[in-house]
Amino acid sequence: MTPKDSNKIGLFAIIKEDFSVPFKKDPAINSKIELFFNYPGLIAIVHYRIAHRFYQRGFKIFARILMGFTQFLTNVDIHPACKIGRRVFIDHGIGVVIGQTAEIGDDVTIYQGVSLGGVSLEKIKRHPTLENGVVVGAGAKILGNITIGANAKIGANSVVIKDVPADMTAIGIPARVLNKNKTQETNAAIKLPDVDKELFNYLIEKINLIEQTIHSNPENSKKDAQLQNIYENYIRCIKDE
């Protein structure tokens, strides 16, 4: 179902559905009362639903004022003109920005600090489209009129400026597509490879290999011992200061 189809369903039916999503996607929740005090992303989505209907009916200033109040209340900035599908979950919510021409499909999960931003000042489709089932990690920036395919995953703090195909994973700055998501997960948890960990593992193994090469040559072993003495002298100087 597309965001456009959400308009065919009653407003209160969609809001009721929104309130049920945290119980499916957040194991930390214990009570319905928490929905009103601990889920700013949910409150922002509910306010957006109302403001969006007003915006569509020509009450654009009122809709903007409502979302301005919502931004103050929740620290989530959603433009009332954007299109958001059903069962969208903004987890934690703080710092999320969703631009005017952004489109978000059904069952999308967005974590804190995410920006769906534009890179153009023209009055065109300048914000991204997130298809059904997309998961966007904390702090990710998705910029421009690009499309994130269905069930794709965007790693935390990634900067995405190109389309990401469906069922793929993108990480990094700028984001690069890794490989197909082979895991069949029922929740929205992001399980991405730890690139920094892989790099450190490589460096450690490389250093071990170099040390083995050095120690296999007696002359190199002497130079290595001299370097070790220099390093120890350096450490002593620091402690003496």
Please give a structural write-up.
- The strands form 3 sheets. This protein has a 6-stranded mixed beta sheet with strand order 3-6-9-12-14-15. Strands 1-4-7-10-13 form a 5-stranded parallel beta sheet. A 4-stranded parallel beta sheet has the order 2-5-8-11, with no helix packed on it.
- Helices cover 39% and strands 15% of the residues.
- It contains 6 helices and 15 strands.
- It has 241 residues and is of the alpha/beta class.
- Strand 14 (168-171) and strand 15 form a beta hairpin.
- The longest helix has 23 residues, at 218-240.
- The protein is elongated.
- Helix 1 (11-25) packs antiparallel against helix 3 (40-56) and helix 3 runs antiparallel to helix 4 (60-74).
- It has 2 domains: 3-180, Hexapeptide repeat proteins (UDP N-Acetylglucosamine Acyltransferase, domain 1), CATH 2.160.10.10; 195-240.
Low-pLDDT sequence parts: 182-189
Provide the domain count.
2
CATH class of the largest domain: Mainly Beta
* Helix content percent band: 25-40%
Number of beta-strand segments: 15
Tally of helical segments: 6
How do the SSEs run, as a string of H and E?
HHHHEEEEEEEEEEEEEEEHH
- Can you give the mean pLDDT? 85
Shape: elongated
Question: Could you provide a short overview of the structure?
Answer:
The chain has 241 residues and is α/β, with parallel strands linked by helices.
List the helices and strands and how they pair.
Elements: H1 11-25, H2 34-37, H3 40-56, H4 60-74, E1 77-78, E2 83-84, E3 89-90, E4 97-98, E5 103-104, E6 109-110, E7 115-117, E8 129-130, E9 135-136, E10 141-143, E11 147-148, E12 153-154, E13 159-160, E14 168-171, E15 176-180, H5 195-215, H6 218-240
Parallel strand pairs: 1-4, 2-5, 3-6, 4-7, 5-8, 6-9, 7-10, 8-11, 9-12, 10-13, 12-14
Antiparallel strand pairs: 14-15
